[in-house]
Amino acid sequence: MFYPAYVHSDHDGSASGFFPDVPGCYFAGDTLDLAFADAKSALDAHFELLSEDNQAIPRPQAVSLHLAQASDTLNGGQWLLVDINMDKFDGRAERINITLPHRLLNRIDSMVQQHPGYGSRSAFLAAAARNELLKAG
């Protein structure tokens, strides 16, 4: 899942930023590249704490929505989309038995093979379910 982050570079080359959808989650680095790397670590750590406390993990909104809401206050920086694997924050994995049409299963397996970021058929199905749940609100 992609979370938008706002990043501002300073004159000395350092950079810092925040996630508008995740209150209290900030990141920084001595360089822009280090700030980008810290963004993922900060978001991961923040979500880990939220899940340990059984708190809801905020859902990301589109960058265009943030641009429309804060065009006056967010200028001079740039937006970054940080990809976070949400599997580890959903709790313990549970084995289930499902039935799918053969052609659909072949298409899923082909997608997983072409996009190794999914890791497995189960991870693909979990990502698809999360996307549909996000759309439903």
From TrEMBL:
GO terms for molecular function: sequence-specific DNA binding. Transmembrane segments: none annotated. GO terms for biological process: regulation of DNA-templated transcription. This is Type II toxin-antitoxin system HicB family antitoxin. Residues 3-129 form the HicB-like antitoxin of toxin-antitoxin system domain. InterPro entries: Arc_rbn_hlx_hlx, HicB-like, Ribbon_hlx_hlx, TTHA1013/TTHA0281-like. Signal peptide: none annotated.
